[in-house]
């Protein structure tokens, strides 16, 4: 409430925020989480929490009048739809050179993501974050994160015959026939629940295509794991539909100003809270935007120049291939990917490509992929005093490097299979999904913008604990690494700072 004083305030309830909240609470600290999105726990008028995939309504997008689907086209037309403006669960934030998809709500990205829970190869992690003791990460913090997230593995026997993974088996076959390595990928979606969906004994969620607008069943999102455990301590209070706008030093700690929003995005109240410690966990983009704005407007003027730098898109690029009629990918597809093609060791263009579902409810013969590549480009955030907004200078042309790396896999597969790229999925005629990312990373890089545990230089009691710490790439899907790094950092912060 307005005027309160709290020992610890966490901005955002995604992976970093959820870890911070749980571990602080377990150490006896009272925590206030401030989350700009909604709490997705109450059914709408149709009896569901999240909206149907093929009939999206306001619940699908954060304050938009029209959907903005990542794969937004099919056979010559856009299949976006008009929707009511509402504080929906998926945000497509447009920075000109790139659209950044992010989850909005209690649970952050865990509400909308594909659940792929990938621990990177140790040598890749060590190259990305050389200041972090990799031995500790792999013996302690990655296992801790995987356990607390509820990561589980697909039953390999079931996989071989499950109708809903025909698309993945076809993707694997094509990778193998072209000599590429592949690997199963663990997930936080409950595979036992999915088996029941396939058997017809449980309400379908992954098998109903649910993912980017939220899963009504089956997904172990953070509200059921870390945040559920945090709430059970009795020491954590979450304020949904509250957006932090300002953080500045004040008497007894930091003064945090926030806007309370209604479900149309309008500010209905402005509140001020004093916090002894503030954890920035608003996501790579949210944290970077806040800190860059605070530095530019003199609220936190001593933040270092490294704040706002080294932002990357995890080398994301999407592409579809058109299969032959005898290589159908199935009319029933699980929305949870379960395997990836591993070409990271290729010095000519490292890539890890997830074999992605394209659940259209009918046979499309499409093989879809989301490639994570080692794109070297990094963008910076800057404050525009004219508009009061924070810009990100990512250039669309920078994604050519990602396309080149992805082509090293898919040109080869196309040549071997005698197939071609789909050109109708990302525009009327556009082969590459190269203008958006699911994996924003960086902006407040560990050991540069912060110390080696996320403490912001110049401001004791301010911490960064989310994807902003990771310098633009994780070599695989990022949330397990974000979670494990947060586990490492919060343990040290609790031991040394409290
Ligand atoms: P995260 O974005 O999770 O949380 C930040 C929270 O802060 C949000 O809830 C936001 O609303 C809130 N916030 C922001 N600004 C605020 C403010 N000013 N005040 C209050 N609250 C504020 N990764 C993966 O490993 N496997 C996968 O399969 C996928 N798939 C995938 C699909 C899609 C569609 C998306 C969009 C993303 C993925 N990801 C993924 C990426 C993954 O979800 C992402 O990396 C993490 O959610 C990032 O975790 P963070 O803790 O950094 O922020």
Rg on CA atoms, Å? 22 Å
Question: What is the total domain count?
Answer: 1
Helical amount among residues, as a percent range? 10-25%
CATH topology name: FAD/NAD(P)-binding domain
| CATH superfamily grouping | FAD/NAD(P)-binding domain
Number of strands: 23
β-strand percent reads: 15-25%
Hetero groups bound? dihydroflavine-adenine dinucleotide
C-alpha geometry: globular
Helical/strand content category: alpha+beta
**CATH architecture identity:** 3-Layer(bba) Sandwich
* Average residue-wise pLDDT: 97
List the uncertain runs.
none
- Separation, N- and C-terminal Cα atoms: 24 Å
Query: What's the main sheet like?
Result: 7 strands, mixed
CATH class bucket: Alpha Beta
Structure, described:
With 498 residues, this protein is an alpha+beta fold. Helices cover 24% and strands 23% of the residues. The chain contains 10 helices and 23 strands. It has helices at 15-26, 122-128, 134-149, 156-161, 166-177, 191-199, 226-232, 283-296, 400-417, 479-497; strands at residues 5-11, 31-34, 73-74, 77-78, 90-94, 99-103, 181-184, 236-239, 242-250, 253-261, 267-280, 309-312, 317-322, 339-342, 351-356, 366-373, 381-384, 389-392, 420-421, 432-433, 436-437, 441-443, 462-464. The model has no long low-confidence stretch (mean pLDDT 97).
Task: Summarize the model shown.
The protein is an alpha+beta fold.
């Amino acid at each position: 409430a307005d005027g309160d004083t709290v020992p610890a305030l966490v901005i955002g309830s995604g992976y970093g925020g959820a870890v911070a909240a749980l571990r602080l609470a377990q150490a006896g600290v009272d925590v206030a989480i401030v989350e700009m999105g909604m709490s997705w726990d109450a059914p709408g008028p149709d009896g569901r929490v999240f909206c149907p995939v093929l009939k999206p309504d306001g619940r699908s997008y954060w304050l938009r009048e029209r959907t903005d689907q990542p794969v937004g086209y099919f056979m010559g037309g856009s299949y976006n739809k008009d929707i009511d403006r509402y504080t929906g669960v998926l945000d497509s934030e447009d920075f000109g050179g790139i659209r950044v998809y992010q989850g909005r709500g209690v649970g952050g990205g865990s509400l909308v993501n594909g659940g792929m829970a990938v621990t990177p190869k140790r040598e890749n992690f060590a190259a990305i974050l050389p200041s972090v003791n990799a031995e500790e990460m792999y013996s302690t913090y990655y296992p801790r994160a995987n356990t607390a997230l509820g990561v589980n593995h697909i039953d390999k026997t079931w996989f071989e015959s499950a109708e809903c993974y025909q698309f993945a088996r076809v993707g694997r076959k094509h990778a193998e026939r072209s000599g590429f390595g592949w690997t199963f990928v663990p997930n936080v979606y409950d595979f036992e629940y999915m088996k029941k969906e396939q058997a017809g004994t449980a309400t379908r969620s992954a098998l109903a295509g649910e993912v980017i607008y939220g899963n009504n069943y089956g997904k172990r999102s953070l509200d059921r794991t870390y945040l559920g455990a945090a709430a059970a301590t009795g020491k954590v209070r979450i304020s949904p539909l509250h957006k932090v706008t300002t953080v500045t030093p004040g008497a007894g700690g930091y003064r945090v100003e926030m806007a309370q929003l209604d479900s149309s995005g309008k500010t209905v109240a402005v509140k001020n809270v004093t916090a002894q410690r503030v954890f920035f966990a608003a996501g790579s983009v949210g944290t970077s935007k806040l800190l860059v704005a605070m530095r530019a407007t003199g609220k936190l003027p001593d933040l270092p120049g490294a704040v706002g730098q080294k932002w990357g898109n995890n080398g994301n690029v999407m592409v579809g291939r058109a299969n032959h009629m005898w290589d159908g990918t199935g009319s029933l597809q699980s929305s949870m990917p379960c395997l990836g093609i591993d070409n990271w060791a290729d010095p000519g263009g490292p890539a890890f490509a997830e074999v992605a579902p394209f659940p259209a409810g009918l046979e499309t013969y499409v093989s879809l992929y989301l490639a994570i590549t080692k794109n070297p480009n990094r963008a910076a955030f800057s404050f525009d005093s004219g508009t009061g907004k924070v810009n990100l200078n990512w250039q669309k042309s920078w994604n050519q490097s990602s396309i080149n790396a992805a082509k090293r896999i898919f040109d080869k597969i196309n040549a071997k299979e005698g197939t071609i790229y789909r050109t109708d999925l990302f525009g009327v005629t556009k082969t590459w999904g190269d203008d958006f990312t699911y994996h924003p990373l960086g902006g407040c890089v560990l050991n540069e913008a912060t110390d080696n545990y996320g403490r912001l230089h110049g401001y004791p009691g301010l911490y960064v604990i989310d994807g902003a710490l990771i310098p633009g790439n994780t070599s695989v899907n990022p949330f397990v690494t974000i979670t494990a790094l947060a586990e490492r950092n919060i343990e040290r912060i609790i031991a040394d700072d409290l």
